[in-house]
Design goal:
Layout (H helix, E strand, L loop, with lengths): L1 H28 L7 H15 L9 H17 L5 E7 L2 E11 L9 E8 L9 H17 L9 E8 L13 H11 L4 E8 L28 E6 L3 H14 L4 E6 L11 H6 L4 E5 L21 H18 L6
Parallel strand pairs: 3-4, 3-5, 5-8, 6-7
Antiparallel strand pairs: 1-2, 2-4, 6-8
């Protein structure tokens, strides 16, 4: 009888262990697919603090150079080979910074290119933590997360960091993204889509925390808790495609807008440079001045941002870019 009891309890313990393991597996599998963990949020914050703790632009060239060097050192640390697009602006030598992942024959022109980009300069008088340290940090982490991706045959994904988005350069010849888009056009390249990350670090659950352009007040949430995919009517197909891919891969709230260029805010970022060359392009944004109270002020500092939400957005965008580029799963 005693031997039977011992055997019985051994079997029972094994069964309980098996049930516990099965339950743990189910809980792990059922976790939200976009849950990024604390590491990514910490990485994002470290980038923002390194790039955007002080004003950095051609009026503050030392700080602008420091931001560029952080970007370059980070990308080289990921194992990328850098490409620099250098040119003169405001009497100084400035540069765009680019790395890429491709699935093309050596020496052959890509059949299609996707741009994932952000500007790394700040507005005059502003440290630029949200505008646009947040977008720059996100593109750095997307480059890390997608380093081993394999796009569809003939496809290249470029991660690009633009200088000189802010005034007095916006929409001028010395704007970094304008230089980049024009060079691609001159080279006869096919840009299938440019995804520009612009001010992505501020979210609020409070009602009426989100302002909206006139005429759109009742079409979008009044709480500024979502990420927006925004483009002109000419890029409406890309907006729909990117938004659908993000929603399929992430549970983070997301909204889309394709509107005429005169609608408030629709063209106010580097995506407009690609539009001007006839390329489809969109801006991914927290809507900047329509939500963020510290926009273009000295208080746009790293402590203001919601890094946990940023991390969820970045995870969703990594999977979105995978889908757009037709990446092969390994």
């Amino acid at each position: 009888m005693r031997k039977f009891a011992r055997s019985h309890w051994k079997v029972l313990i094994l069964i309980l262990l098996a049930v516990a393991l099965a339950t743990l597996t189910l809980e792990t599998d059922s976790a939200p697919p976009t849950s990024p963990g604390p590491e990514l949020a910490t990485r994002l914050r470290n980038h923002v603090e390194a790039i955007a703790s002080e004003e950095h632009n051609t009026a503050r060239p030392r700080a602008l150079e420091q931001a560029a060097r952080h970007i370059e050192a980070t990308l080289e640390g990921y194992g990328y080979r850098l490409t620099r697009q250098e040119y003169e602006a405001d009497g100084q030598k400035v540069r765009n910074i680019e790395v890429s992942v491709s699935n093309t024959v050596a020496g052959a022109k890509p059949e299609r290119i996707f741009i994932v980009g952000a500007h790394y300069d700040s507005a005059r008088g502003a440290p630029g933590a949200n505008d646009n340290g947040s977008g720059t940090a996100a593109v750095l982490e997307l480059a890390r997360l997608l380093k081993t991706m394999q796009p569809s045959r003939g496809t290249e994904v470029k991660f690009v960091f633009f200088v000189n988005e802010e005034p007095p350069f916006f929409i001028g010849e010395e704007m970094g993204s304008m230089q980049h888009a024009r060079a691609l056009k001159r080279g006869g390249h096919n840009v299938a889509g440019a995804l520009i990350l612009e001010t992505i670090g501020w979210y609020s659950q409070e009602k009426n925390s989100q302002k909206l352009p006139p005429g759109l007040e009742k079409q979008y949430p009044s709480s500024g808790n979502f990420i927006a995919f925004v483009g002109t009517l000419e890029s409406s197909a890309l907006v729909r495609q990117a938004l659908a891919a993000f929603r399929a891969q992430s549970d983070f709230p997301a909204e889309g807008l394709a509107a005429p260029a005169h609608v408030m805010g629709v063209t106010l970022s580097d995506h407009s440079s690609y539009n001007r060359q006839g390329y489809p392009a969109l801006m991914i944004t927290d809507t900047a001045f329509l939500r963020y109270p510290y926009y273009h002020t000295a208080e746009d500092t790293p402590d203001k941002l919601d890094y946990a939400s940023m991390a969820r957005v970045v995870k969703g965008l990594a999977r979105t870019i995978d889908a757009l580029a037709g990446a092969t799963k390994t």
